[in-house]
Amino acid sequence: MIISESNDVDHARIRKLIAHAFSEAALREQEGLLTSHTDRLISRLKDQINGPAEGKVDLRNWYNFLTFDVIGDLCLGESFHALATGEYHFWITDIFQALKFWRVMRFGNTYPLFGFLLRVFMALVPSVEEKRDAFFKLPTTKVEKRLKTETNRKDFMSYVSLLLPLAIT
Q1: pLDDT given for residue 3 in this prediction
Q2: In the chain, where the domains are located
């Protein structure tokens, strides 16, 4: 169940269950992980400044790399390695494309005729549905893999997996 799509009662119950993952103690346990990613960012920025770009660095990309590597590590048990490669993982690129598409869909909700035409277009172009399915396959696979992985390292999924049986009931 997606917390943002649940009714008020389920939302409150699920939120209470996952709140432990965001407690001060739980977040302090993540300090080493956050520090390692931040150190890698600083190192890569130094490399960029001393590199062929002569001190010019696109910080937006590097902060995005940091954000997604941290989120991947905390939620999925593994980084997207964007800081290491200096490139966007394909799924991160897909997220940004999906956000742009979501704005178009919201426009379609506001203007029903446009929304109808958009839905017809999506139905007629099978690659749109395939792209959507592929987009959701990666996180599903990664979450399943993380839930099956036993580790002493604490991350958000450590807390969520302990409470998962309670969330389902």
Answers
A1: 46
A2: 1-30+154-169, 37-88, 89-151
